Amino acid sequence: MHAIEFRDVDFSYGEGGFRINKLNFTVEEGEFVAVLGHNGSGKSTLARLANGILEADGGTITVFDTPLNDKNLYEVRKQVGVVFQNPDNQTVASIVEDDVAFGAENVGTPREEIGRRIGFALSAVGMEEYRHATVARLSGGQKQRVAIAGVLALKPRVMILDESTAMLDPRGRREIVDVVLSLNKKEKITVVLITHFMEEALLADRAVVMNRGEIVMQGAPAEIFRRHEELLTYNLALPRIGEISKRLREGGLDVSDTLDPDTLAEDIAKCVS
Amino acid sequence: MRIVAEHLSYTYNPRSPFAVRALDDVCLTVEEGEFFGIIGHTGSGKSTFVQHLNGLIRTPASLKRRKRKQASPVQTLTVGEFDLTDKKTDFRALRKSVGMVFQYPEYQLFAETVKEDVAFGYKNFADKKPTDAEIGLAVNEALSIVGLDPNEVAGKSPFDLSGGQKRRVAIAGVIVSKPEILILDEPAAGLDPLGKREIMELLHRIHGAWCKTVVIVSHDMDEIAENCTRAAVFAEGRVKYCLPPRELFKMTDELLALGLDIPLTAKICLALKKRGIEIDCDFTTEDFIAKTLALKGGVK
Amino acid sequence: MKEVAFGQYYPVDSFIHKVDPRLKLLFLIAYIVAIFLAKNFYGLAACAGVLLAIVLFSRVPLGKVLRAVRGVTFLVLFTAVINVFFYRGDTVLWGWKFLQITREGLIFSAFLVLRILLLVVCSSMLTYTTTPVALTDGIESLLTPLKWVRFPVHVLALVMSIALRFIPILSDETERIKNAQKARGADFESGGLVKKVRAVVPILIPLLLSAFRRADELGDAMDARCYMGDKHRTKYKKLRFTWRDAIVFFVGGALIAGVVVLRVYLGAPV
Q1: How far is residue C1's CA from residue A138's CA, in Å, rounded to a whole number?
Q2: In angstroms, what separates the C-alpha of A73 from chain C's closest C-alpha?
Q3: B83: Cα separation from own chain's centroid
Q4: CB atoms B110 and C205 under 8 Å
Q5: Which residues of C touch A101 (CB under 8 A)?
Q6: Can you tell me the distance from the alpha carbon of B286 to that of B225, in angstroms, rounded to the nearest whole number?
Q7: Which of A47, B118, B269, C205 has its CA at a distance of 20 to 30 angstroms from the CA of residue A105?
Q8: Looking at domain A2-220, which of 3.40.1180.10, 3.40.30.10, 3.50.50.60, 3.40.50.300 is its CATH number?
Q9: Are C185 and B125 within 8 A, CB to CB?
Q10: For residue A149, how far is the Cα from the chain centroid?
Q11: Alpha-carbon dihedral of residues B236, B242, B244, B248, nearest 10 degrees?
């Protein structure tokens, strides 16, 4: 089943602004999709459309076979959770559990059930011991995990992360990536990870490259990163390792275009001995 | 101008239940002309340290005196001629010589036009009121070096520019007073890969032509390995290591134990070492590739 | 990194800290009523005694408590001076033109000063021992009956909660922007009023822009979490009364009763 399907979706931010034309895009249930693109390529618009925060000008957006419209907006939002970029701008409460409860409270979940969901959501992101902590004292990665838990408390089937790692330090980024992977594998939640860190995209089942509101490349991440020249035309850099192996090949070393340092070392070792 | 810190300690909200010891006996010297890197987790004290360097955080003189009585080492912090633990220091003159670019500097833009915003620092630091021509010249120069076309952007509102352009305007607004030392707190944070690369290129341009010393705070080990002459590793308010990248990134285990990353080149070198191949490189991409290719030649 | 010591909350674990915030609020109101009902020093002494017990049980250091008083020094002195010199009494101790000091004046101003001090100390004990979050919860809960007259209690509570969350963020941000402009040579200290006001512009504009951007993003994040206002909303946290609250309730009631008795039987101070 399609978790999310965009069919001929049009959207524009008004005259002269950014626009999306006849966009077609699907995410399968259980899939982990990475969406890449330089700043301003339209990837964040995608997230806001899928969750009904922005309304499409034309075409249809379908979430688990339900076409998104004004009437079922909240039903759809329950299914499609979005985590945003800035860890400080997503929390409404000062205490972790109060914030995680917010979404579940909004949809009228009974009290006991909210308590259970807070427990589930916080343990899914590895933050159980911070249940009564003050949000302001957490690190960026921890705040972002609380934001994910807040979305999880709504029991969504799809989780969209809109550059949620962009403002974090490497440790925070790792925390989020680990959480996302486990949600996808263990909880079977469909994940759409919007990012400009190429290394994160490597973990996905499928990578999608956006440029000027269009999807210009899609496929297995390793396969996408093989198409160096094409990526460059969309203002995307190769992951550093791709660049190194490419330069080594140009220098006459017969290494594969792997994206794993260990495999690259293996290849180098083979070539020189 | 050298930066010399000795036994520098700092506590936020001292003597309260919220007290946080941010710096603990920091000793560090940055020589003139360096492209210096500062590494560490959020909360390791690195931001507190760099804010000391242009007097935004000061070690209270009273603390200094008290410490002396206790016969513990005297805290000193000097930048060139400036003694930063002395209340009487001319901090305006200091700030003119030490430029500071904060994290996400685009959020400090405020003026109606790019020109006005960049001119802000220039006017503040001028000894006598500068003429319009002088201002125009300084602004144009600063914009050019950060890679923006003055004719195109000077008259625009800074808020109409793209994210990467805004950041460059913000950097121009700091270097416009030609500081000798330029400090940047994560200059490339939040930018896409191409934007990151452009910012680092621009810093090298500035380092050669405008500012003798550049200090960057960064989480990106590749960035440090590619660009820095030396780097200091902060952890729990202390300087754990201060070495050139060539030596620093050989200490893989120590860095990983601190929860820090290592550059990609170091990762490959490590994997090669396990296979009995040692590459002695300075961990820049260029050197790594050259040495690796030379390896093949050597075998032939 | 930098901790914002927000509000005056003093984080220790004590009997008083654990009392239900609603009851603390009600107790404060009762206490204020008691102070104004007290007509003589015996009544005030009873109030002071109760307050002393609260301070001791709260484990907030005495220095911290006295600091709260420091803020109203001027008010206290002003009240004292005015009343000492202008209160008309019978026993004149000293006089000069229209000024005169009377025995009654001295007693009366001492009475007023004591009242102000008790008032200030008791209110600050509330903020010392109650987190802003608990206070908001308490206010919301106490205002709940107003829902019947269509007062938007829920919106008010949400606004207070978000404000509490964002005040430390924005104060950090102000500090950061201020530092960034200082690093560009901005001078916020010297110069006359006009210059000082103009110096604030480079802080205010970025701060406002940031606040709007944050509000925008927060709105999206709330939308994404299905926020639809008060409709069908449940509430996870419920405040519950415990034995501690019963004690406080009893003490508050006894205090008012005691003060009333003292008032009736012992008369005015002057």
Answers
A1: 10
A2: 9
A3: 20
A4: yes
A5: 236-237
A6: 11
A7: A47
A8: 3.40.50.300
A9: yes
A10: 15
A11: -50
CB A248 to CB B261 under 8 A?
A: no
Q: Hey, which bits of chain A come out as E strands?
A: 2-12, 19-28, 32-36, 58-63, 66-67, 80-83, 158-162, 190-194, 206-211, 214-219
CA separation for the pair C89, C96 (Å, rounded)? 15
Is C236 within 8 Å of A154 when comparing Cβ atoms?
Answer: no
pTM, two decimals, is 0.85
How does strand A66-67 pair with strand A80-83? unpaired
CA atoms within 13 A on the CB side of A203: 18
pLDDT in tens, chain A (273 residues): 899 999 999 998 876 667 888 899 999 999 999 999 887 788 889 999 998 899 899 899 999 988 998 888 888 999 999 999 999 999 999 899 999 999 999 999 999 999 999 999 999 999 999 999 989 889 999 999 999 999 999 999 999 999 999 988 888 999 999 999 999 999 999 999 999 888 899 899 999 999 988 899 999 998 888 888 898 888 887 788 888 888 898 888 888 888 888 999 999 988 887
Q: So where are chain A's domains?
A: 2-220
Q: At CB < 8 Å, which residues of chain B contact A?
A: 41-43, 162-164, 189-195, 197, 219-220, 222, 259-261, 264-265, 267-268, 271-272, 274-277, 285, 288-289, 292-293, 295-296, 298-299
Cα–Cα separations (whole angstroms), residue C3 to A93, B17, B43, B60, B127 = 18, 10, 11, 19, 37
Rounded CA separation B166/B71 (Å): 49
Distance from CA of A32 to the nearest CA of B (A): 21
Second CATH level (architecture) for the domain B3-262: 3-Layer(aba) Sandwich (3.40)
